[in-house]
Write a structure and sequence with these properties.
Structural class: alpha/beta
Strand content: 15-25%
CATH class of the largest domain: Alpha Beta
CATH topology of the largest domain: TIM Barrel
Order of helices and strands: EEEHHHHHEEHEHEHEEEHHEHEEE
Radius of gyration: 19 Å
Number of strands: 14
Strand order of the largest sheet: 5-6-7-8-9-10-11-12
Shape: globular
Length: 326
């Protein structure tokens, strides 16, 4: 049976990361290692304060599974034993990594998928003054896809500043539940004129039914409103896409199920991330294959990533090596 090691890590950010929920200067992650017969599998989960979690709480949730793991808990059984979230994500992804290394088969092959290819990832522009957001966009001019974080203030001024700095870039905006139905309706036409391709979670998750009544001239993507395959039912009435994040689904296993369930309902796929290291992003790259939008730029916010981290090159993120994961 695999032995469990779990630890919390803190990774300083290169610059302050500000969204409508608040600001941060470091990333907290929880790393799980499952070791058996000299082989080690790793997974990473990122606690999200929005859901009342910090690293200590996630470590406690994982430690609570120690006796079950020692008794032979499987990855499939884990899905029923632990609720979706970063604790299950770290364990689930460690199981995948361990299975891949034990079988000498890559995780994508074990999952019945094609070999992953590099994908274009968005680069996030955090909330700041319009001038500074425009400057940040200009400095990222070699990235073809930018995601603009917004709150309820100076929405059009901020987006206009970014658009002026990068007239050819594809633009997404993310309000992180920061708007009202009225403010969304007011800015939709102008955002469409500015060439915004998608708006992510404009309304609070508990107030998003208003979206069904809106003329969505710009596609709307569910983030906080969609966690796992159980939450996808009926979303197509309010949303055009869903953002799949492994820290919400509880790992790769459920993320693949959510992707299938969303596609069956005609919803477009976005694959996103929390701010974490490349170990968090690596499993998500399997889900990201064929997705309409990929947003796996978390490691680019860190002062320093893991030594065997993912390769980012002019807007592309490349699949992980076996030394990192899978």
């Amino acid at each position: 049976m695999p032995s469990l090691t779990v630890r919390a890590e803190t990774w300083p950010l290169a610059r302050t990361f500000t969204i409508s929920h608040g600001s941060r200067t470091e990333a907290e992650v929880v790393v799980v290692e499952l070791a058996e017969d000299g082989i080690r599998g790793r997974g990473e989960g990122v606690p999200v304060p929005r859901y009342g979690l910090d690293a200590a709480a996630v470590v406690t949730q994982i430690e609570a599974q120690r006796s079950a793991l020692e008794a032979g808990l499987t990855r499939e059984e884990l899905q029923e034993r632990l609720a979706p979230g970063p604790a299950r994500c770290a364990l689930d992804c460690a199981f995948w990594d361990l299975e891949a290394k034990r079988s000498a088969r890559p995780a994508w092959d074990l999952a019945g998928l094609d070999a992953p290819l590099p994908v274009v990832t968005a680069l996030t522009i955090a909330i700041d003054t319009p001038e500074r957001m425009g400057q940040a966009a200009a400095e990222a001019a070699d990235h073809p896809l930018l995601k603009i974080k917004l709150d309820g203030e100076a929405v059009l001024e901020r987006v206009s500043a970014v658009r002026a700095a990068v007239p050819e870039a594809r633009l997404l905006v993310d309000a992180n539940e920061g708007w009202s139905p009225e403010s969304l309706s007011a800015v939709l036409p102008s955002l469409a004129e500015l060439g915004v391709e998608m708006i992510e979670q404009p309304l609070p998750a508990d107030g998003d039914r208003e979206l069904a009544r809106l003329n969505r001239s710009v596609p709307i993507c569910a983030d906080e409103s969609c966690h796992d395959s159980a939450s996808v039912e009926g979303l197509e009435e309010r949303y055009d896409m869903v953002n799949i994040k492994l820290d919400k689904t509880g790992g790769l296993t459920e993320a693949l199920q959510l992707k299938a369930a969303a596609e069956a309902r005609g919803l477009g796929i976005m694959v996103g991330c929390m701010v974490g290291t490349s170990l968090s992003m690596a499993p998500a790259l399997l889900v990201a294959q064929g997705a309409a939008v990929v947003d796996l730029d978390g490691p680019l916010w860190l002062k320093k990533d893991r030594g065997e981290g993912l390769v980012f090159d002019k807007g592309l993120v490349h699949p992980p090596t076996a030394a990192l994961w899978g």
